[in-house]
Fold:
Amino acid sequence: MPQPTKTESGVPPWGVFPSAASSFLRDLPILLAGLAIFYGLLTFARYGVGPVNTQAEINLHPGALPKYAFFSVARIALAYILSLGFTLVYGYVAAYNAKAERIMVPLLDILQSIPVLSFLPPVMLAMIGLFPHSQLGAELGAIVLIMTGQVWNMTFSFYSSLKNIPREMHEAAEIYRLKWWQRLWQMELPYAAIGLIWNSIMSVAGAWFFLMACEMFVLGDRDLRLPGLGSYLQTAANAGDTRSIIWGLGTMVAIIVMIDQLIWRPTIAWAEKFKFEQVELAEPARSPILDLLRRSKLISAAARVTTKPAREALNLYFAKAGAKQSQHARSGMLSGWIWRVLMLVALVAIAYAVLGMGRMLVALSGAEIREILRGAGATFLRVEVTLVLAGLWTIPVGVYVGMRPNLSALVQPLAQIAASVPATALFPVVLLMLIRVGGGMGIGAMVLLLLGTQWYILFNVIAGSSAIPTDLKEVCGLFRLGKVERWKKLILPAIFPYLITGFITASGGAWNASIVAEYFHFQGKTMSTVGLGAVISRATDTGNFHVLLAATIVMAVMVVTLNRLIWRRLYGLASTKFKLET
Amino acid sequence: MNPPGADKVSEMLSQGHWDQAVALLQQLDPAAAADAIMDLPFEEQRVLFRVMPVDFAALLIGHFPYYHSYVLLHTRSLESLRAIIGKMGPDQRAQFLDQLPGEAWKRVMDEISGEYSPANQGVDAAAADAAGAISHPIPAVEPILEAVQVEKSFRQPDGRLIQVIAPTDLSIEPDTITALLGPSGSGKSTLLRMLTGLIQPTKGLVLWHGKPLQDCAPNLAIVFQSFALFPWLTVLDNVETPLLARGMEHFERHHRALRALHTVGLEGFESAYPKELSGGMKQRVGIARALALEPEILFMDEPFSALDVLTAENLRGEVMELWLGKKIPTKSIFIVTHNIEEAALLADRILVLGRNPGRIRADFRIPLKQPRDRNSAEFLVYVDYIYKLMTQPDLDPALPSSAAHAVKTPYPMLPHARPGGIAGLLELLIDRGGKDDLFRVADELLLDVNDLLPITEAATLLGFARTEKGDVEITEKGREFSNADISTRKDLFREAALAHASLLQQIKTGLSSKSDGAMPLEFFRDILDEHFSEDETERQIQTALTWGRYGEIFSYDSATDRLSLHRLEHTGESEHDLQHQE
Structure:
């Protein structure tokens, strides 16, 4: 990115330009980016309304990659926008309607534990049914599918942010009679912004992880593929084309790094102002891109004539429109008979769904039930062993790095890039190597799970160990505690809360990832191992819906139970006994 | 409700017949006459007292509360003050003088013996003259806001109702600063939130200019303890927020916000963010935000308690300057505080709240001129009186008899003081000759009354000290405790706690009745839940644990949540105890 750098004479090279020219030069990249986005949207729209072509021939030539990459990015972006809309509505209702909250929050918990691929058949069939004659159906299906992988944690974050707004701030909003519009923009969204941004980053990373599965799959007798980076990689893996795999992988990493630099970093730096803290940080996050945007005359001029007057007009409109309607009327709106009718409809729908599910489950044969249970046991063991393995290497390494600020400044960005590479994309490479040394799919699945989940633990351990107060470290030195004692008395208890956070995220991710890890199309063959994920994938492939349903329920129940029984308790312990208070 | 004769007296005064009023009063029983006088506006009382004959004044003066007698006496000339005191009945005189705190007593003694230099009296004489100049009584004023029998109960999780505010009448009059004073947990905040319409009373009505509050759009504002500013908005935007909510156009909004900022001395900080400001500056923004609305009543909820002493003092002074100089359009200020001196400095009228359930225990005026000198004898008389009120729950001058039947015998509460604090208080008392005024102790220890009261209550409960009329005095037991070594102290503390603290007795009896001497803490939590709110229960439990552990009455294991009579061997428990001793 062009940024004024100092020359040897100490004068910025652009300083000699007249200011108009320099500001034009500075705005040029922004202008070009705007045009590029417009052109891209046009292409996508033309393709979207085109005739049905769900069997697109995927061209393995590297020259086709930019187009595929663009389609994938557009899909993820649209899915993200959908997720954001869903998050705002769902989170808002759940946080402010006590009756709805009782249903919506547990429901969210269950939805979150359902693996992405289990949504595939219903979502796809529904969307293709809706738009049978255009590409839109399959595309929408893929987009909604990606959305099911990213939306839940965002919704949770928004909901809990809303619930955590300090009481006096709420009271100020009420006593000064802020209408819902002003509340949303001046209080609720800013308060939730930081959590929402970090969860968005995680969600989009998740979308890359499941991209291959979402862009190319077999559904019963139908073989669907949509042009994109995911399907490119999948096709390359099927063909065993190592060169294409590496091209695709390289493109994906490049795009992920670019998105991180061009979108997430500036967003994080911009969100600094939403930090709810009383004092100013010594070292706030910075981003050169954000500086560029902020300094741009073009953008500030555009804002002066568009967003600022629009914001003012909207604010005044809602302030005057809602002048008569009081806060109590608003919260009471849903509580009347409308609510009862809604409840009734929901109850009937639930009853119908339960009945339907029951009928489907009755059709299960004994062998299928045995297979599901065996798979559940195997996946459970695989996930737990993976977590232990990940912990074994990440804890010592993370503590070593975290205790040395210089080293962690060096390692953190590298590790972040490594972590941003979706493990699924690496999978073909890993399998190739494993087959060469004679390992099977059983080991391959573990490697994939490990690749996908170890980072959560590593980053948390680094954060935890770098937060150990210096005086505690000095006390250990003073009392001449041995290595073992030091780990037992200081390090492990101090990083415990971070470790648990890391393990919780990793565990959830591992269960979800087991679906792509245990069943894989590679070099024209289907490779699989025993596991619940494999059962779900195979059921999707063969259109065996009752097995899919049963296996999904088993997985959701296991994940929810594990969370309730183990992780939530450990988390409670972490936030009470092992909390480092200042 | 009015004492007999009061109506007639005020009728005569309204026609200017002072002599007739005095004549009428002389026909009444002295106590009834004093009651009738107390019912009048203070300015009328002063004039009436000045015009009555010395003999009659001497007859009446013993029937007023001592602080009131003191102020009334000083409305007369030095000579007649001597004469009145000289003609008082000997018992009454002794009682009156005995009640006066040190400074006031000394001044009265000097005045009687003629050593009091009239030079110091200039201010008082001027004030007395001013009072005499009022020939027409002030007409009775319409309150801006009136609470009629408001009460608040909260439902416990198990469905039981806990009353936090007993039925209360209260009015806020124009041109008055009203202070609501009370210990923590007395429901000050709840009462303020009912008056402002933030929460609905369980029963009763709040009237705004005679109309129910929820039917009007009352022009009121609150200054919050935590400031409740939006950290992501600039100072100017924060102040504009409530104006925008009323749909005010950009130009006027801007203008009014700037004017409010100018009033509080914040010009130049318009574009700063709150986190760049110090606490005092932040609260100025909070005040500007409230003033921009030009509220009829400005509510302040502990506005200075999050600030350090000097900043608070400074800001308090500036607010008073604005108020006295009529530089703010506000008609009335209602301030909630737990700081006795703050209330006595600012308020024209003080409401003292008692707790469990919250109710108004005293409602009186402070007729001292502004600005007040916090070292003057008059001022200290009031401060001492308020301490007296707050330390002696049984001294209930304003408790209406009707409220008595609503209050069931409350469960005895443990005052939330740590043994270390009690020992500290006793040591200070020994240093000061065994006895001192509470407000002086608070001053010496740099403690808020909120922190000091639980300590004196605890010392009194344990029999280590006596509080009487705003003084605290160490007892023989207290001396013994204070002079003992650590282990004897623990023995004495255990004896005293088991003899006087019913919760600890209950726990001890409960534990002894079990064969293993152990019980879950949950059991006692359930008992307390029936009497206290959830928060208060938790505080009671915490205090009981601290006392029980210090006195080695029982031990507690937080991992199992169990209390036990047996000492734990070599665990973290003993370290814990040491911490609590400090």
Notes: Residues 336-582 of chain A form a domain with the MetI-like fold fold (CATH 1.10.3720.10). The mean pLDDT of chain A is 79. The first helix of chain A runs from residue 19 to 48. The CA atoms of residues 394 and 458 of chain A lie 5 Å apart.
